[in-house]
Amino acid sequence: MVDRKKKNMKKIMILSIPLVIFFISGCAEIQPPNPVDIITSPFGSATDSHIGDNKDDVISRWGEPDEKNEIGVDEIGVKKEQWVYYGRYPMAPVDYRYISKTKYLYFEGNALVRQETKPGPQPKAQQQQQEKEPEK
């Protein structure tokens, strides 16, 4: 009976060693954010859009885009679109979703395939409104 318990304990120890090594090495991969990431993305990237997201995912996180532009179809007939989210506050030092920079999202069918971030033009409605307002 004692030999059987010793054999079982030995098996458990042998099997648990790889698990312990696996968990310890997994923790080594966790990297804290660097100061630049904290300053430019203080809210993290969990609400960002990712390649492969569908249109509903993007709308649920960001809302409807400011512009939707059809840019054609690919060789098998899948519709291509560009969605534009204009930066609301270009002078803001943080880049969260589209607060400070204009985001261009490109879809093929229902899937997000590319995204670009760049300082961009203001929405046409804001430009027209500013042109109409008299200078103070």
Describe this structure in words.
The chain is an alpha+beta fold. Strand 3 and strand 4 (111-118) form a beta hairpin. Helices cover 37% and strands 21% of the residues. The chain has helices at residues 2-28, 35-40, 55-62, 124-132, and strands at residues 67-73, 79-85, 102-108, 111-118. It is elongated. Strands 1-2-3-4 form a four-stranded antiparallel β-sheet, with no helix packed on it. The protein has a domain at 42-121: Beta-lactamase Inhibitory Protein, Chain:B, domain 1.
Which helices and strands appear, and what pairs or packs with what?
Blueprint: H1 2-28, H2 35-40, H3 55-62, E1 67-73, E2 79-85, E3 102-108, E4 111-118, H4 124-132
Antiparallel strand pairs: 1-2, 2-3, 3-4
Major sheet details: 4 strands, antiparallel
Give me the CATH architecture of the domain at 42-121, please: 2-Layer Sandwich
What radius of gyration results from the CA coordinates?
25 Å
Q: H/E series, N to C?
A: HHHEEEEH
Provide mean pLDDT, rounded. Answer: 75
**How far is the N terminus from the C terminus?**
95 Å
Give the strand content.
15-25%
Key structural traits:
136 residues, Beta-lactamase Inhibitory Protein, Chain:B, domain 1, 37% helix, four-stranded antiparallel sheet, alpha+beta
Describe, in short, the structure shown.
This protein has 136 residues and is an alpha+beta fold. It is 37% helix and 21% strand.
